[in-house]
Amino acid sequence: MKRIAHPLLTATHGTQREIVSEHFGPDVYTRKVYIQACLHADETPAMLVATDLRQRLLALEAAGRLTAQIVLVPVANPAGLAQFVMGAPSGRFELASGRNYNRDFPFPLEAILQRVEGELTDDSQHNLKAVRAAWQQSLEAIAPRDEMASLQRRLMLLAHDADLVLDLHCSREAVMHLYTSEWSWEQVEPLARYIGAKASLLSVDSQALSFDEALSLIWWRLRERLQGAYPIPLGNACVTVEHRGQRDVDSALAQQDASAIIDYLCHAGFISGEPAALPELRWPGTPLAGSEQFIAPVGGVLVHRVALGTQVQPGEPMFDLIDPLSGEVTTVRSATAGVLYMRRDVRFVRPGDPLGRVTGTTPIRTGKLLSA
Length: 372
Description:
By secondary structure, this protein is α+β, with helices and mostly antiparallel strands. Helix content is about 30%, strand content about 25%. The chain has helices spanning about 45-60, 80, 110-115, 125-140, 145-160, 185-195, 210-225, 250-265, and strands at about 1-5, 20-25, 30-35, 70-75, 85, 90, 165-170, 175, 175-180, 200, 235-245, 285, 290-295, 300-305, 310, 315-320, 330-335, 340-345, 350, 355-360. The longest helix has 19 residues, at about 45-60. It starts with a strand and ends in a 14-residue tail after the last strand.
């Protein structure tokens, strides 16, 4: 394993942070896997999974079983990891600006198109390499304006040429679930089986430019813009894996999840050896636009009426909001048939606060499909 430190743009005088990447497997390779944890820096279960993955990758490397280079970034957001407000971690947003660390990643589509002009041929593998080279040059040409921009740019440079990208997260309170694109689903579906995903949300463009989406959407947009003039492969499969909820920091669960990821990498041929048998798929992939997002119509004490992972039906009561002054109860019901895959952890809400989400098979939302 090789460890490389990548300094970030200095946030202020007297400070210096860095992203550390760990590289396993052969130095000369034709396939690459990129795995990172804790881009939202307060999502600790993902960090514990990455810690367990390191030990497994070291053993697999020593046994000569890695057929691809595997890059692991256990702490993808050292800046967010340093943010505490009166003792409570706050790693989803940069406190100085309010920006979400996992939104609006660099998307240099126009720069890539300019750089590959005259370079593309009828050979899709040649075009794959040409696009990746142009992508790297375009990212390197970006001058980050602050620490957060330099962090996002560095993560993209580490991952842009990977065939598979796993971005490890967790939610507030949730069952195991994942996000990926419709066109990656065939490749990703075995991962959903191995990790026991109870929801798989599919979207090509959620209009958020999250890390995984910014990496995969480039290929889709290139194919659209070139209109079949040259064969452009869909150069990666990118997945956000949600390792349950923030309080699910448990060694047994982390080991279980790390084993599932290794099983998937073996199944996909990035690790040699006989893959574990595929488990059953717990819930089919459904459109992200079909998920119902419940919003509090009034404020009050939040009482959850449905357990996580429950299959619900339209009209089923999901949440009670109790006014502490009057005792009045407002019940929020589902309009969708699906699985309750995540819910709010704070038990007092204000009007407009999110309460939870249920999968759905029919698109019901447009515009920005991810929360802030």
